[in-house]
């Protein structure tokens, strides 16, 4: 399934509204993971990036890339959407970094180019993982790390489409998760735990950690309605994978 054209159109169309709604949260402070904006200093997923060559897969308006460039990383921001890249260019601070239009499943970079490839949702949510993960592994140097945050299959399996919220009731078959209709023909991708393990190991990566970010009970989800409000404190809403290339 080639989701690139539809996903590109989708993000070009919604970029302005998305950034208006979410940039105040995403850009409020550096290194905030996921829909609950949990600081990386609590999760210890990225570590020190000073002097590292870093690729962000699906950089959006560059909130993460901007922060890591300011910390001394040599960052490249990649995104499928021209509108998202234009937003990143407008928001770029004094620490300049290149922006590249491209798809996570067809990375336009040479092998062994980066010390760190990462995304917070981004490319590994919006590109077929069985294609995107091997591409990420290819462009990593030996010892380089792939770190990425995606929605948990628990979250998708409990999402009530009609009500537009996550519930405590299973709504979809766990083993039926694959693609998620995001409107206008666009799709995101959802895997089971086992599928993620097989794809990561198949790409030659070593899994160092699987962090399930857990917000405090009163923490609001900035993107989705949840019932009960402390849903993600009780069940995993996201998966933060930490891997490396041996």
TrEMBL record:
Keyword Transferase: yes
CDD domains linked to this entry: AdoMet_MTases
Protein name stated in the entry: Class I SAM-dependent methyltransferase
Protein's GO biological process: methylation
Top-level taxonomic group: Bacteria
GO molecular function, a single term: S-adenosylmethionine-dependent methyltransferase activity
Keyword Iron-sulfur set for record: no
Keyword set, alphabetical order: Methyltransferase, Transferase
Domain Methyltransferase type: 55-148
Entries under InterPro entries matching the protein: Methyltransf_11 (IPR013216), SAM-dependent_MTases_sf (IPR029063)
